[in-house]
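> @MW can you paste both from yesterday?
MW: sure, first one:
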Amino acid sequence: MDLREYEQHKFAIAEVLRSASTAAPREQREWHEQAQELFARLADDRFNLVVVGRFNRGKTSLMNAIMGTDRLPTGILPLTSVITTISYGSKEQVVLNYGGRILSQEISIDALPRYITQEGNPANVQRIRKAEVQLPAEILRRGFHFVDTPGLGSAITENTRTTEEFLPEADAFLLVTSYESPLSDEEMRFFRVASSSARRIFIVLNKHDTVTPDERRTALAYVREQLAPIFDQQEPRIFSVSARDGIEAKRSKDSVRLDASGLPALESELVGFLLKEKSAEFMLRMCDRTAQLVQELGTPSDAKLTEEIGALTRQIAHDSRGVRARGEASEALPAELAILQRLRPCEVCAQIGQGVWDFLRRFQYELSIRHDEQQRFAERGGFCAFHTWQYESISSPLGTCTGFPPLLDRLAEQLRCRAQAALQDRALYEIEDLVPARHGCVLCAVQAKTEAEAISAIANRLSKDARSLHGLSAICLPHLAMVTEAIEDAGLIRKLNEREALILERVSEDMKRYALKRDAVRRSLLSDEETAAAHRALLLLAGHRNVNATSRITSASLSNSASPPSNRASADGSGASADALRQLLDAAPHDDGRNKACR
């Protein structure tokens, strides 16, 4: 079981609870209150890793390395008595929580030292209770929650007191010392206090890049010797790490240097503890409580739900015995997933929308003032139904009233011809012929042409340089099919589809988190991605409503068009106008049935 699988188990428990809540009668208020409590426990679940150590041990550098970022400020001294938490956020920001009734305040990360250092906030005169740093780091998204405490051994008594008061909030401790002078008096005092808390302790000797292998062995032996009397046979595991090398290796994707930094071993141990020792117990307890609630329900559906929660319990117990030793942060996640919150929607849809908009903006003006354009518009039968309303959204009533009368007059004439011919057996068919069709709609032609050019441009870009895949937008499924069809390289097609699968899975997770936090009445915990997940999912499935809401002319029909290259609209629609597409439309098939009754 890894962090993602753990989260999927949590979603599965929430789904059983949701189904049971739907079946439970509303008058069973006590039952619903218990279900609400379980939803809240699932939504609030996170792993508090409290990081402690003296100043200049590299605490912040180590957290940066684990998260794969360099955004937390390092080298600031000395810290004032402010707890700094690091949790997931859709964007980088810091929320300052004050004591008393002062409202919270949002600041940039760069401004953080002005509020948490002794120089910027001496003796915490600003009464800041906690600084919540929010970063878009994958390991934080999966439930890790770092707590950076004021340095041990500070000359400021309040700092040490603040750190010790926060210890009960910890799920585990990460004490960071270094090879320069391992285990100071203050750090030994911390071990004596923390050893009685029954919480897991991880020890890191940082900066092992500054010493020789022999010096490392000597320092590690010394630390073990000092800790033995305190922990007896249960002494914590000690990790030799270079946070500096670790973060640089992650940046350069140098797996050899990353392994040598010692960071993957630490991350693997942290994840293993979270999943095997803490979270598995929590999940099994949640399964047991959910099963009890289902049994109390007493409805026809409780047998099926009981079976589901029983199967889930067995699966969690099995997975917890096979925890995979890998940390999400050290995984070679695709670059586009690490920055998904900044991925723009389908660029093909965007290009089509812009092309149609640019054309329509000019065409509606020409239609309102040019008689010849009005006549051609009438002869083509106007817009299709969908694009008629797109036209209405941009045109004024005056523009419609000057541009559309020739069309209405022509349709009236054709209807009158049909009425006089009295072709009753074909009457319905003939009237349907008058409804504007896509093959005669100038905006459908603009849309199809721009779409074909956008698909071709993406396929060419990816074929020339597969690395450009990382800069690709979140392509919607309709356009993904077209891009895939335009690419000949099977390996590139595989990468493209694997990337899309990962994006879909990630958005699905955000949707499940949104549903869980809403069921738990924990809206304050929602990230921007979770709030937007429903809309993003629909965009991925169907594309933009103004693009894929109508049938499109196929690219093949456009490729056979007699329109010369000099008259074709540019990919961004900047060259589109009524005249530029006239030949394209004239080459498209026209329905001669419109005038049959009048011949």
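MW: second:
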Amino acid sequence: MHDDLISFFLDPQSPKQRQYEALRAYVLEGLPAAAVAQRFGFTEKSLYALTHDFRSGKLKFFPQRSTGPKDRRVTPYVRETICEWRKKGRSVDDIVQLLREEHIELSPSTVERILKDAGFEKLPRRTAARRGRTKKNTLIAQPSHNLDLKELEPFHEECQVAGLFLFLPYIIESGILEVLEALPLPESGVIGKKQAFLSFLALKLMGGKRLSHVRQYDHDAGLGLWAGLNKLPQPTYMGNYSCLLSAELCQQLQQQIMQRLRAWEPSLFSGQTINLDFHSIPHFGEQSEMEKVWCGARNKALKGANTFFAQDAETNVMLYANADVPRQDGSEEILHFVDYWQDIKGVVNETLVFDSRLTTYQVLAQLDEAKVKFITLRRRGKSLAKRTDALPDSSWQKVKLPIPKRKHHTFLANESEVTLKGCPKPFRQIIMKDHGRDEPTYVITNNRDLPLVEILVIYARRWRIENQLAELVDFFHLNALSSPIMVRIFFDLLLSVIASFLYRRFAQDLPRFEKHLAPELFRDFIDMPGRVRFDGKQFEVRIRKRAHTPILLGVKNLQQPIPIPWLDGRQLQIRFTL
């Protein structure tokens, strides 16, 4: 029956087994020493010596192996910590996760035994729906809703972009929330106006290209908490929300937010010049109802939105944006900005800087009549070029611009007074030649207080608004239109301006990073995963330390608890961990 096992006992292979079988045959079975020695390959003397060693205890065939400690190797501190967490209502899984964050690895069964020995009973079983999971342990697609802190249980969740919480003290201090509360923005009993706006702003601060990309952050409790929700809304809600806004409401929202931001951080609005420019956003929908606009980046006319921007030339902060600019009314958009800025400041004492194609000579006359200073270019023509060529050499002066990165620092300039068509008063004209271009450049201004060199330097800085627009396109995805509806474009554009300002303000608190752009700041400081905790009273965000963490540790706003208004004033603490 066991023929396959007989050879194991009759023909032992290992030395220990042969010694054991030889002693068993000699002692127990009583076989002669010579027969046993011959059978197992020993001499008779070796067999007698083997018997002597076994009798004296020198030879052991089955040594006892030492076993581990029978007591649980858990320190009193860990036991006390586990008991404290259970007193706060934490489940076994929660406790295991919390211990893991403290670099303590214990299995759920061990935690259960410790709690049982301490006299704790099991917690009432929660339903899968209450835990936000199905029977297969997959997350339920629950609709977004405002967080109810009275029913919110303690939790400990991952957050994909925990660095987003670094913006919270700036958003709260800026006064944006008070503006949202005062205006009739869309809201419902499920999602409030603050929560809805913060959801859009979260995507902008993370550089989301499309509203549909919110699916990437589905069921992220940390990002939901950032906006005061259980999770960020679905793309359908995000897409439909801005359809409930009017152009007038967007204008009010922009104006009041800028008033708040200017009162909060006047140093970022202290420039003496303002750059103005158009930006054409192409739309490629098959049934687009937009009019054709000239897209310089593609060097052709395409259907799209004609947008207008104003920027503080010294601080690079965007001051104004408008998406609904019909082509036939584009030349007067500068007047709308003047009215807007006058409502905010009460006076327009900055010098406006813009390209020649932005407006007409008639509008320049209106600006001059309103005592608004400007610097722009004059359009070249054949007759103007002939008159310039006829100017005597004595009328030209050598000028050097103090711009280190400029290739051609030195050139010739001619200054005179000219009267343009449709303008009753003359303007100051500065002609530049031998400056690296084939044709002369004609600068027109009504600012007679500034020296010639300073006027040229100011106009040369107009490229800053083009750099800022490039940032809005590359990181905030200004050109990623998903709708031909102007109001929705306006709302998206306004969010881009606000997000850009928050990055600019955040950079002011980062030594040696004050002039870094949003993509660099996002990569180095914001795009960091972490964990969000709620112990039933306050919130805590834990972010893993990185190379740039020491700089964040020097920001005072981030080292103290932050009361969150949209979370009933509960405090949130940001911590950096290993």
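> thanks! The two ends are 63 Å apart (CA to CA).
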